[in-house]
Design goal:
By secondary structure, the chain is mainly beta. The chain has a domain of 48 residues. Helices cover 5% and strands 42% of the residues. It contains one helix and four strands. It has a four-stranded antiparallel β-sheet, with no helix packed on it. Strand 1 and strand 2 form a beta hairpin. The longest helix is centred in the last third of the chain and has 4 residues. The N and C termini lie far apart (34 Å).
Amino acid sequence: MARSNTAPSQETNPPDFLAWHVANKGDKGFWTRIGAAWFHRDRKGLSLQLEVVPINGRIVLRTPLDDEKKEPGA
């Protein structure tokens, strides 16, 4: 049985999470925004869209701040 597409339209809905690449250099962490994630309609999963894929460090998902939700293309 095929599953129906439960992911919302990512172009019209602001993301539920922003994806960040975090690279540690000494005592500092450098954060670079690399994508976004949206809950599925049933809220049992996420669709993750990455613009780049880092080869080191880690990926962190964080809820957007209010000003980040207002950015075009965010």
